[in-house]
Task: inverse folding
């Protein structure tokens, strides 16, 4: 469960799994499941949605996120192709012009683990 902060309800463009990174989608208050570092990170879902409905997005504070890679705890996270958090490693994204970071994972875990992330989206532009 997220620690209360800024949680906003968005319309979803497609199904979004629970505990996934969400990206801004075209339109007013629209969201979609993130599919990589180029997607404009918005926050993290808690419940998700299985169809084109509405979804609550944690936009700051601490929220649970599904890990898509191994974390030692304290690393910055970006989205993988399924909206799961993977560690930001500048060497892996050297060819990307824009990198959207969603926040900092606060605990250790491997792929499939639900871990706390401090949601603080920002963008790196090269």
Result:
């Amino acid at each position: 469960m997220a620690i209360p902060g800024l949680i906003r309800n968005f319309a979803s463009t497609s199904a979004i799994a629970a505990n996934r990174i969400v990206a801004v989608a075209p339109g007013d208050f629209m969201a979609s499941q993130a599919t990589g570092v180029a997607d404009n990170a918005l926050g993290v879902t808690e419940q998700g949605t299985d169809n084109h409905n509405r979804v609550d997005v944690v936009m700051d504070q601490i929220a649970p996120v599904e890990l898509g890679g191994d974390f030692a705890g304290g690393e910055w996270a970006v989205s993988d192709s399924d909206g799961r958090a993977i560690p930001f490693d500048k060497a892996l994204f050297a060819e990307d012009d824009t990198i959207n970071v969603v926040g900092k994972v606060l605990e250790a875990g491997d792929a499939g683990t639900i871990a706390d992330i401090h949601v603080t989206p920002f963008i790196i532009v090269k």
In short: The CA atoms of residues 73 and 107 lie 4 Å apart. The longest strand covers residues 114-125.
